[in-house]
Description:
Layout (H helix, E strand, L loop, with lengths): L6 H5 L2 H10 L2 E5 L5 E5 L2 H8 L4 E2 L36 H12 L2 H5 L2 H13 L6 E3 H6 L1 H11 L6 H14 L5 H22 L6 H10 L6 H32 L1 H13 L2 H15 L8 E3 L3 E3 L2 E3 L4 E4 L1 H4 L34 H18 L4 E2 L21 E3 L6
Parallel strand pairs: 2-8
Antiparallel strand pairs: 1-2, 3-5, 4-10, 5-8, 6-7, 9-10
The structure holds protoporphyrin IX containing FE.
Protoporphyrin IX containing FE (HEM) binds next to helix 12 and helix 16.
Amino acid sequence: MPALFTHEFATDPYPAYAWLREHAPVHRTVLPSGVEAWLVTRYADAREVLADPRLSKNPAHHSEAAHGKGKVGIPGERSANLMTHLLNIDPPDHTRLRRLVSKAFTPRRVAAFEPRVRELADRLIDGFAERGHADLIHEFAFPLPIYAICDMLGVPAEDQDDFRDWAGMMIRHGGGPRGGVGRAVKRIRAYLAELIHRKRGDLGDDLISGLIRASDHGEQLTENEAAAMAFILLFAGFETTVNLIGNGTYALLEHPDQRRLFQDALAAGDTGLLRTAVEELLRYDGPVELATWRFATEPMTIGGQRVETGEPVLVVLAAADRDPSRFHDPDTLDLTRSDNPHLGYGHGIHYCLGAPLARLEGRIALAALFERLPDLRLAVEPSALRRRGGLIMRGLRDLPVEFEPVRG
Ligand code: HEM
């Protein structure tokens, strides 16, 4: 059985996942945090688990809840009183809150955001284009989603760099000591409470105002729920998108034939290929390696394996999305892949709320990058690239690149 959670595994977990899919598709393991959990790796089982109402998202159902406090979920969310967000709750609360936020997070709002995302991407590229080299994680993939989600939420421009700092604290400490994350989460919590209070007296066209308006039309959203909602939008919407841009760029740089296809599509204005490309990059090396925590609320059988009440179940999206029983030639990156029902955004009632925004950001960011810096190349050997720690997300710590300097 291959070793899990080692350095080699973090660099390329796919061979280990192939082994698990074949030999131990529902596998009990001890996570680096010491918590025991079941890993589900086959596509069919993964889809079923993600939509099974017997699996709760509420950590109170964890059998280790009493002594495992704080070991599952987002570090710091408990102490900052931010537990009542979509990824920690079940129906009927989930249904009510999701309906509310969906009213504010409309496809129209997302589509109208496209020129702004392109403007942000261009501004960030302007910051390093003349230099001929850059770290694409720090200078591009990381700030873009932070500024985008801040804009959407209605965080004033003068406060957005504070958010960038707090988000940096959260991302740097992911998987490491939890103290820094806890501090960052507390600061974000205090800021959001203040912002929601201010907006109540001066509603605008932003998402937080939309949430307040939606809650004023009958359904209730407590101040705590509003803060938790803004927090989860920020949290779920930023590191994921950082990694889509980072992993996606890296995959294109490592596959010259696919990169050529992408650049030809850009030149020809073939938005169809740009869209299938983003889906394939999500499937091939997506930002979310494992779906978030689920807990069995009764004894059940998953893929022939008995799981007891209170046991945590983690769906390995990265393994399911390379399952040869669902995807033709799954280890090949094929930007033209059309039969691609990947699970990169999850499945069932917790399916990613921000998927339309993520797709938009991924497409615009990659297009801007390869359009403006057509000879983009890695500045180091792939073996020198460092992976970020952490259980749920899969991403690079840095991505040094070189290119012909472009004068403004
Ligand atoms: C490429 C980027 C993204 C990826 C790969 C991604 C992936 C996911 C996945 C896999 C889930 C389901 C987790 C589970 O069931 O355990 C999820 C849920 C969620 N995502 Fe995303 N996400 C992305 C971007 C975003 C953005 C930009 C936002 C918002 C601004 C967002 C907001 C959410 C929210 C609120 C949920 C919870 C939905 C619920 O529980 O009902 N995500 N995302």
